[in-house]
Amino acid sequence: MNAASRRRRATQRGYTLIEVVVAFALLAFAMSLLLGSLTNATKQVRASDEYGRAALHAQSLLDQAGVGEALAVGQRGGALENGRYRWEMTVEPYVDPSAPPRQTEILGAPKLLQLDLTLRWGDGGPRQTLQLRSLRLVTPTDLNATGGGP
Question: What is the pTM of this model?
């Protein structure tokens, strides 16, 4: 070896072991932050999917209410997707809280029924519950046919 190549080796400096360890530690920290944010994003996507499916099921249940058979005052329930989603629907006469009390009721006049639908999934906590309310106009003959009216 000549003197020029020795001088080049003496001036060239590599990474020390401590620098390599610190670089790996920083890389590991950055990767853990990245994976943590991806995990949260995955949870949010899953929750959004469940809520969207619940909304579709609820819309379908409300659309089917009173189709094929008359609405009956009372409560019913069931499960969807092998028990993944559970629902309860209460049907009762609608009472307008701002209207004055009626003295007499007109026979044969259509009536409003209030449908309250509660759909739950998972453990049924506040973020896993969907509640909807709808009104339906029915004739008293429909109510009498199902035993739900006077």
Answer: 0.64
